[in-house]
């Protein structure tokens, strides 16, 4: 995909051990039946149309639009679900165009981190008063928190997916890496550094296989550093007392390690030019032992490519080899506890310039919940190889067969137990400033660091200077 979760759809976990917010209605049998407290088939209400702008969330997601709309109308005969498809390439542009015109769709599938942007514009719809207890109680608590900003709830999550690394099983075994132990117990940066050195294969002076490759170009330009720093005592750009965290000395140490892996020869010198597509191609063609960012659906993609190789029909990725995909955690730094970066994307509810009627608002909530739960969610999440975050989704998925490596399933469960907590307490204006600093300073400097044009110290000094200018001397971490 085109951002954290967009890789999910383009190459395309999480039964969380947390307590849900409330008990699920006994009516919710996994077939997208109407929860108690909402109108269901047979009631007489005014006609209404709910619009939804939806990208290809999973490989087969958009193929199901007609059936999804038909089933929703069968559930609510007075309601029509009108779905507008979008590609990941034009999703943001389409949504922003409609938002700027004051007529956004009622529902759009976006990443939860985008909610604050539209809160600032006053165009998202708080559904706190319209979502029934049965709806809220259907979701695992942790992912639902990501759909909040301040005291408001702005939609329902579709999944909560761990950002991990992925290894080629045969290569890991050849390098003597006990990946099952790593899946259970994690690894430190020093352990990881030595492991990926063992994965390097050279033919004379030419490297034919690297130990580790991570996409750092294009839309993936910020992923690498964001994932690493969470494991160095900085789970968020802001501390709990709202100080900007990346002025910490730990940030500098991570920057040094980013450069060190390239200097070791474990990563390509040309890493700054590796985008998400090239990263995955390098994995499938055996040019790297470990890849990142890895998502659950990568296992599915690797399996499908393996099947194409076996079929010998010419449809496999050119030059690819059979590869069994192994989920691996990101290493931890400086003795800090592991913290997993997660993608929580979902069905965000929007409003136009005019205040929606209570009836229309309730209907939008019904549609958003329909898409995020039961059979629709089970089908979509199984297609993505991510597990289910609603009780109704889990029930609907019970009869669906998904061919996943059980070690990978268990590894994701461990990582999700360390998931970075949602931070709806960060004020919108602070979040916007942090994003601006990231776009204007961190990303360009990181590219220069990876390319060997500046030192880790030079990047750290630039980030610290910009942070103090942005947040003030008292608004940043001092050590």
TrEMBL record:
InterPro entries: Bact_solute-bd_prot1, SBP. It comes from the Bacteria. Residues 25-46 are annotated as: Disordered. The keyword Signal applies. Residues 25-44 have a biased composition (Low complexity). Transmembrane segments: none annotated. This is Extracellular solute-binding protein. The keyword Electron transport does not apply. Keywords: Signal. Residues 1-22 form the signal peptide.
């Amino acid at each position: 995909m085109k951002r954290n979760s967009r890789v999910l759809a383009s190459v395309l976990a999480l039964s969380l051990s947390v307590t849900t917010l409330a008990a699920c209605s006994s009516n919710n049998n996994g077939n997208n039946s109407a929860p108690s407290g909402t109108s269901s088939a047979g009631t007489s209400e005014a006609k209404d149309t709910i619009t939804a702008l939806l990208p290809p969330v999973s490989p087969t997601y958009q193929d199901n639009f007609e059936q999804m709309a038909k089933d929703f109308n069968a559930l609510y005969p007075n309601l029509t679900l009108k779905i507008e498809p979008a590609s990941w390439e034009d999703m943001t542009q389409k949504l922003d165009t409609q938002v700027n015109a004051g007529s956004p769709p009622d529902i759009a599938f976006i990443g939860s981190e985008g909610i604050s942007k539209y809160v600032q514009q006053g165009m998202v719809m708080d559904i706190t008063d319209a979502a029934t207890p049965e709806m809220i109680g259907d979701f695992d608590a942790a992912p639902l928190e990501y759909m909040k900003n301040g005291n408001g709830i702005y939609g329902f999550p579709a999944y909560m997916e761990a950002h991990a690394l992925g290894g080629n099983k045969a290569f890991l075994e050849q390098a003597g890496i006990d990946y099952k132990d790593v899946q259970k117990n994690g690894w430190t940066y020093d352990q990881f550094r030595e492991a990926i050195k063992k994965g390097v294969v050279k033919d004379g002076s030419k490297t034919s296989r690297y130990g580790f490759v991570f996409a750092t170009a294009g839309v993936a330009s910020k992923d690498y550093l964001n994932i690493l720093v969470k494991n160095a005592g900085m789970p968020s750009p802001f501390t709990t007392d709202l100080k900007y965290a990346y002025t910490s000395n730990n940030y500098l140490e991570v920057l040094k390690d980013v450069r060190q892996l390239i200097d070791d020869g474990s990563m390509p010198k040309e890493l700054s030019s590796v985008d998400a597509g090239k990263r995955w191609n390098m994995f499938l063609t055996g040019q790297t032992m470990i890849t990142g960012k890895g998502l659950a659906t990568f296992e599915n993609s690797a399996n499908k490519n393996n099947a194409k190789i076996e079929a010998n029909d010419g449809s496999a990725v050119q030059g690819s080899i059979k590869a069994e995909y192994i989920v691996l955690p990101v290493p931890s730094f400086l003795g800090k506890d592991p913290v997993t970066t997660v993608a929580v994307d979902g069905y965000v509810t929007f409003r136009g310039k005019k205040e929606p009627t209570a009836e229309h608002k309730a209907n939008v909530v019904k549609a958003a919940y329909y898409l995020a739960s039961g059979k629709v969610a089970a089908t979509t999440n199984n297609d993505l190889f991510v597990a289910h975050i609603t009780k109704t989704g889990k029930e609907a998925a019970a009869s669906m067969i998904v061919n996943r490596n059980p070690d990978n399933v268990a590894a994701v469960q461990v990582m999700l137990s360390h998931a970075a907590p949602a931070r709806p307490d960060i004020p919108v204006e602070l979040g916007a400033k942090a994003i601006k600093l990231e776009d204007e300073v961190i990303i360009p400097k990181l590219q220069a660091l990876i390319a060997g044009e500046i030192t880790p110290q030079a990047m750290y000094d630039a980030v610290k200077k910009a942070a103090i200018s942005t947040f003030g001397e008292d608004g940043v971490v001092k050590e």
